[in-house]
Each structure stands twice: as C-alpha cells, then as structure tokens.
Amino acid sequence: MSNTYLDQFPAEAKVVRAAFYSSFFALAIGGLFGIVQTLHRTDVYRFMDSADYYTVLTAHGVLLAITFTIFFLVGVFTWAVTTSLDRGVENLRFTWAWYGLMVIGTAMAAIPIFAGFTDSIDMSASVLFTFYAPLQGHPLFYLGLVLFVVGTWLAGVDWFRSWRAWKAEHPDERIPLPTFMVLTTTIMWYIATLGVAAAILLFLLPWSLGLIESVNPLLTRTLFWFFGHPVVYFWLMPTYMMWYVMLPKFSGGKLFSDPLARVVFVLFLILSVPTGIHHQYLDPGIAEGFKFIAMTNTMFLLLPSLLTAFTVVASMEHGARQRGGTGYFGWLKALPWRDPVFTGMALAGLMFAAAGFSGMVNAGMNINYLVHNTFWVVGHFHLTVGTAVALTFMAVTYWFLPQITGKALWSRPVALVQVVLWFVGMTFMSNAMHRAGLLGVPRRTAEPQYEGVTFEAAVGSVGELNAQIALGGVILTISLVLFFANVIATGFNGRSDELPSNGYADALSGPEDAPLVLDNLKLWTAIAIVLVIFAYTFPLLSIVQRGGLFGPEVITFPVSLESLAPIAAALEYGGLATVDGVASAVTGALEPGRIAIAEVVR
Amino acid sequence: MNVHTYEKLWLIAAMVLIVGFIATITYGSVGLGIAMVGDQQETVEPTELADDERFGEPRVEQIGDDEYEVYVVAQTFSFQPDPIEVPENSQVTFHVTARDVIHSFSLAGTNVNTMVIPGEVAEMTVEFDDPEVYGVVCNEYCGPDHHNMEGQVHVVPEDEFDLTEVSVDAPDEVDAGESATVDVTVENRMLDGLETTAELEIGGETSVEEVALEGGEATEVTFTVDPETLEADDSDVEWAVTVDDHEERGTVTVIDAGDEDGGDDGGETDE
Amino acid sequence: MSQSIDESTQTTEIGHDEYDPVGTLALIGLYFLILVALWIFVYFVEFLGNDPTVVTGSALLLAGVGHR
Ligand code: HEM
Ligand SMILES: [Cu+2]
Ligand SMILES: [Cu+2]
C-alpha cells in the first residue's frame, strides 16, 4: 500500500485537485493567448484585428498572473498546512466555500473580458490586468476580482484555523516550516490586498457603476501598485517553499538551514509591501524622495532572494554529495537530472538567477528611464513568474499528480522533455525581449512597427529579435501541449499502489536552531504594518492633496509635504532598524547616510 | 542560530551588492545630475486644457539663450505638437500632460521616458547636442489604437531653427481691374531679434519686403498687388508668401465685372 | 514509478557538521562576479550611453557624460 496525500487526506486531496485543475485550465487558455500575441506582435502571423490584441493581452495577463498562479498556490498551501501539521482542515465545507468563491470570482471577471471579443455583447474589460483608470472596465470585472480576492482571504482564514487548532494541542512545538511559510505569506497577502481592495471598492467599482463621477488616476494607480508589487511575492513565496521543502528531497539531501528559511520569509513579510512605488519611478506627481525610499526598500528586498539562492543550492549540493558527487563543480553531475521534477525546478531556479539581474536593473531608480515599459520588463517577468514560478509549478505537478490522484504519472520522459523545452523556449523569448527593450521597443503594443520611429540595434536587428521571440513562443507552446498531455493522460491511468509517500525534506539545521522570536508572527505583522504606514502615508496624502480624492479637484489636507518627507524617511529607517537578525546592523549603520542622500536627491 | 561561515560570507557579499547598487544610482542622481520625473509641476484640470495657460496651446517656447520649454499634450492617439522642433545645443524642458487616459511620452532609443497621467504634469529637462530625428512612442496602453500613437522630435541645426509664425490674410476673390491687398503677419517668438524678408510671389511677379523684429515682436507687412498682375489667362491666380523657410500658398479668383457675388476678403490662412 | 529519489543511489549520509558547501560557494561566487560585471555594463554602457538623459533643470551637470 502506498501512503500518498490522497491516502492520508482523501477529502483535502479533492480540494487540492480542484484547485490545480482550475489553475491548469487558466494556464491552457492563457498560454494559447500567449502564442497568439507573440505571433501578432512580431508580425509573423496575424489573424485578428489589432484592437483585439488588447483583449487577448488582458486575458493572458489576468489568467496567467492571477488565476493560474493563485489557484495553484492555494492548492499547494492547503497541502502544506495539512501535511506539515498532520491534520485535516477544520471544516471541509468552509474549504470548498472559499474555493467556490474564487471560481465564481474568476468567472465573473472573465465574462466581460471575453465579451470584449464580440461587438454583439455590449460589455468589455480590455483594461489589462493593471486596469489603470481612467480606462474603465465593466463593473462585473471589478466585482469578480473582489470576490476572487475575498476567496483567497477566506483560504487564509482556513490555514490560520488549522494552525491555531494544532497549536492548542502542541503548545510547545515550533511551527513546522511549511506552515510557517504559509502563514507569513498569508499575512503579507492580507496587507498587500488592502491596496487593491481600496482601489476597487472605494473608487473603481462605484465609478464604473456611475455612483461617482471621476477618480484620481494617480491615486488608484498607486493603490494598485501597493498590491501589485507584493503580489509577485505571493507567487514567489510558494515557489520558494517548493525550493526549500521539496527540492532538497528530490536532490537526495536535506534542507541546509531551517532557521534561515524562516528569516527569509520574515523578511518577505516585512519588506514586500513598502516598495510598490518602484513601479512608479516615472510617474509625475510623486516626489523623487519617495521614489528613493521605495528604491532603498526594494534593494534590501533582494536580500531574502539572495539568501535563498545560497540555501537552496547548498541543499542541492548536500544531496549531490550524498549521492557521491565531488569537487567544486563535479558534484553537479551527481544530481538526478533524469528526474523531471528535479530538473524542472533546478532550471526554474537557474532562470530565476538570470531574472535576478534584470530585476536589479528594474529596481534602480534613474536607470528606469532606460527600461520602463519597454519589452525588457516583459522579458524580466517571463523569467520570474513565467519561468521561476510557472516552471516550478509545472515540475512539481509531476510529483503532486500521483499524490492527489493516486495514479502514476503517464510519462516521465515526456515530462523531462517538457521542462527542458520550457527552459529553451524561454531562453530564446526572454533574452530577445530584454534586448528589444534596450532598443526602446515598447511593451503592450499590438504593432510595434511605426512610421516615424525606428529602433536601432548595435548588434543584430529588430527582425532577428522578433524571430527569436516567435521561435521561443512556439517552443513554449509545444512545451505546454506536452504538459497538458501528461496531466490528462495521467487522469486516464488506473490507481497505482506503488507511489512514493507524501512528505517533504528534513533539515540539516532544524527549527531547534532558530531563535524563538522568528515564530512570533504578531511581532512581524506589527513591524510590517508600521513599515507600510511609513512608506505610504506621505505619498498617498500628497497624491490626494494634489489631485483630490475623486479626481483633479483639489482637497486641501493640512500637511506640508516638504517638511514631512525627511521625517518619513527617518521614521522609516528607524523602523527598519528594529528588524531582528541579519539585516539590522548594516541597515542601521547606513541609516544616516541614506537619509542624507534622500534629502539631497529631493 | 548557527549560520555557516560560507553563508555569512555570502551575506556580506549580498550586502555589498545592495549597497553598491544604491551607491551607483545615487552617483547617477547626485554626481551626474540625472533627475527623476517628480512633483515639481502644479496639477491641471484635464477637462479644461483648452483654457490652460500652459497647455491651451501646445508649443515650443524659448526661455533663455539656449533654453526652451515644450508643452506637450498626449491624447488618444496622438501627441501635440507633432513634430516638435528644437535646435541643436539646446536645453529643452518638456512638460507633458494627458487630456484623457494615461499615456507615456518616450523618445525611442534614449533615456527620455515618462508616464503621462491626466491631471499631472511630467517635467523633464533634456540636452540635445546634435541634429537628429527622434521617434516618440506611447508605451502605456491607452486604448484600441494605442499602437498608432507616435510622434517625432526634430533636433535641427541652429541656423535652420526659428520660432517664426507667419499668417497671411489674402482675399479669395477680387473684381477684375481692382488691386488686391495681401497682409502678412510675422511674429518672432524667439528672444533674439530677427532680420529677414517677406516675399510675395503672385502671377509670376515677386515683391520683397524687409522685416526686422525684436524678440517676441510681431509685425504686419502689406503688399498691394496691381490689377495688371492679376490678369492671368486663368481666372485663378496663385500666390505664395515666403518668410525664411515658412511658406503659405493660396489662390485669388479674379471675377469679371458683371459677375454677381463680388469678392471681399475671406481667405485667411495660418501656418 | 514516479519515485523521485532512488534511495539506492545515495551512497553516504553526510551530517550537518561534516558538510561544507564549497561547490555552492564557488557557484555563487561566480554569480556574484557576473552580477557585478553585468550591472556595470548595463548602467555605464547601456544606460549612460543612451543619451540624451533627463537632467536637473538648471545645472548642466551631465555635460561630459552626456556627450558621446
Ligand atoms: C506560451 C507561453 C507564453 C508566451 C508565448 C507569452 C507571450 C507573451 C507576450 C509576447 C507578452 C507581451 C505582450 C505585450 O506586451 O505586447 C506577454 C505578456 C505577459 N505575459 Fe506571457 N507568455 C507566455 C507565458 C506566460 C506565463 C506562464 C505567464 C505567467 C505565469 C505570463 C505572464 C504574462 C504577463 C503578466 C504579461 C503582461 C500582460 C500585460 O502587459 O498586461 N506569460 N506574454
Ligand atoms: Cu515590483
Ligand atoms: Cu498609448
């Protein structure tokens, strides 16, 4: 008899399965749109009107960046909590309820998006996944997004309930690492989604319903990015979880350090949100000083990712050495490269290392003039969410599928080809996108072929870049087809009794080495909130003071920006300095210098 | 908590990277003077741009010897003015706002790039050294025709650059045997004086008037055209007014006596 | 069948104290060098070489760098 997740938690396995299948459904449609827009943009093959391109792009963005990723992660998180606490959900009906709410929300948002393809229905939401006002979508679109997010909130409640119930029975135990990761991520998500909830409920939804006349475009945009940056960590943190708790196991080793994994997740919790303004470096109406503060926070947010790189590679190396690997680089050969789960995740990690670089460029304030809204950015996030996250999710699916269906995977060789093809396709597509961006080729454009604008390449040509992008897109599409073939064919397999057991990796340095304070979620939540307040109060007040709450009519707030900005900066770093652990010493030492710089720059 | 020595090393290296990045950016800002688009400018009412002091008339304005200000309005799906013409070796400050939705104003292949948000004004100061044509794109999705939103910035040689406005007031029709008056208004929007000529070519004859203007001044030059000059084989007589490289063209219809609707001056062209 | 780690391929058991991730240090050191080199290239060649650039209104600070 095997001891899969399905054997342990048959009812929960069904929820996880439903979440995964929803996620794959979004991936299928989103991916189809991906290749359509790739061929259209590059002028390789156009079959639709260019105006419809933006409807396709909206669907691609929403379905992949929101639906695919989040449905998958609620599945993973439910698995992680139940497995690591070794207890089922508290109330199965409640679990199905939040899943249902997410499905309804998705459907509601999808209706107006897809109605954009036909003129016969007077409804559309071709506003892209950023829905910047004054572009206005159908109210159903906003309402759907709200329901979807509320669904995720309730999912969070579910995980917290499990943890509290567990804690009552195990008062003196450390929070198991997977659950710790779920809880910190959830708290981060609660804070982050306040921004988009405010944008939609206070402004965009009433506005689309005609209840209010106008909105302040800079305000709703800023609220969007309050959410829009941390949402990338909502995708990334489950990915990191897989790298921390699963990859070592697939490598044949142990997690190098449980305490550092906790430090990393705490850093994400407190630093993810007060950085969103880095998406607005080129926005008029936001003072340079605020942009500088956002940049500093963003740069420090590199730390948890850089730490992750070390811990994860060291865990893989541990596995390799246990498998007999030797030398400085020779150990790499001892890794299980024939295993699609391992290989997919390792390649995803490698791509993330590359993405790290373009992300560092994106984080830089003035260099943003070079890359902002160019194709560079699209290249960047196809490495992050489009590969680090998506490829990890696809690879780990090959492990999860047997766990949640009780059926053996249809074909491991096909799976291996699939993950390698994704890596190759994305290498072509994303590299060429980065290069095109450096020439100034804009993103989000159906026909980047202009009458009076030329993009000059020092090396190669725009034609060559387009060819690589189209080739990459085709390879990616083939990879997707193989993925779905495997998922579907596995569904037709019979039940198997020889499946691996459910479980995750042990740690070399376990939770007993982690300071207790790391598990003090209240403390970290408080610090996160304080940092957000410091980072956002003054920019938001300033935006409202300038442009008005509901639009360009100015409402006067008794606040003088000039005098408050330095105080904000000071408080901000005061707050940062209280962060326990690794970052504090250096941050503290740099503090006066950075405040001074922020002053000068203003 | 025991952290492995190697990981401590990496931690230090990571901090060095982070601090190095911040230092580079700071060097760009402080050392090289690269400024961010910020909140320097007052907000505007997007619905009342037509009456706005800054944006009522999208234009290029000279404010110092080699200093210019450009007021640009982005709207679905074009930029005004287009093309924008400025001289080489100049320091140009762009002020860009949006009439409707969010756009961008981005000179392709340069570091001149900003979001354009209704209600807000993006201010960017740029130095243009050599003559060149820059393509301008909107890189923020703004509606179904977003991909057709483009413009140009022409940086022209100094001797080809002026801010001269020429408008001509000429009659559409004159009665045969009468003389016609053509009024040419020349405005010099540069700070320096302008010495040039206004030339009228009509019916194969050319007359030239000297124009001398202080900076910011406008003047009117009047040409009187003899009846003989208007005696063409055709009743439509073509004319052209040239001031430097500005040219205005039109036709005057000569009406035989007895024809009813006698012509008064109605034709007015503006450049 | 989809057993990911074949336990039999594990030849040794390496504990916490006997494990030094030298390979990781080597790889990540390499990564560090690549990052520094790429950063310098993208900032100083791609970005600063992509003039004109937005400068502070009054001061002509960029002269010298801005000129090719
Ligand atoms: C078959 C694979 C894929 C292809 C060929 C593809 C292609 C593209 C292209 C060409 C664009 C740029 C469109 C433009 O800016 O004009 C784009 C945008 C985007 N893609 Fe993909 N993509 C793929 C997979 C993914 C995946 C897996 C994700 C995320 C999980 C993703 C997320 C996004 C997002 C968020 C955008 C931006 C949408 C926007 O600007 O509003 N893509 N994709
Ligand atoms: Cu971000
Ligand atoms: Cu546009």
From TrEMBL, chain A:
GO terms for molecular function: cytochrome-c oxidase activity; heme binding. InterPro entries: Ba3-like_Oxidase_I, Cyt_c_oxase-like_su1_dom, Cyt_c_oxase-like_su1_sf, Cyt_C_Oxase_1, Cyt_c_Oxase_su1_BS. Gene3D superfamilies: Cytochrome c oxidase-like, subunit I domain (1.20.210.10). Residues 20-498 form the Cytochrome oxidase subunit I profile domain. It comes from the Archaea. GO terms for biological process: aerobic respiration. Its main location: membrane. It is found in: Membrane. Keywords: Electron transport, Heme, Iron, Membrane, Metal-binding, Respiratory chain, Transmembrane, Transmembrane helix, Transport. One of its GO terms (cellular component) is membrane. The chain crosses the membrane at residues 20-39, 59-82, 94-117, 140-160, 180-204, 224-247, 259-277, 289-313, 341-361, 381-401, 413-433, 469-489, 523-544. It is a multi-pass membrane protein. The keyword Membrane applies. Belongs to the heme-copper respiratory oxidase family. Pfam families: COX1. The keyword Iron-sulfur does not apply. This is B(O/a)3-type cytochrome-c oxidase subunit 1.
From TrEMBL, chain B:
Keywords: Copper, Membrane, Metal-binding, Transmembrane, Transmembrane helix. SUPFAM superfamilies: Cupredoxins. Residues 65-167 form the Cytochrome oxidase subunit II copper A binding domain. The keyword Membrane applies. One of its GO terms (molecular function) is copper ion binding. InterPro entries: Ba3_CcO_II_C, CcO_II-like_C, Copper_CuA, Cupredoxin, Ig-like_fold, NosZ/Cyto_c_oxidase_sub2. It holds the Pfam family COX2. The chain crosses the membrane at residues 9-37. The keyword Secreted does not apply. It is found in: Cell envelope. GO terms for cellular component: membrane. This is Cytochrome C oxidase subunit II. It comes from Natrarchaeobius chitinivorans.
UniProtKB/TrEMBL annotation, chain C:
Keywords: Membrane, Transmembrane, Transmembrane helix. The chain crosses the membrane at residues 25-45. This is Cytochrome oxidase.
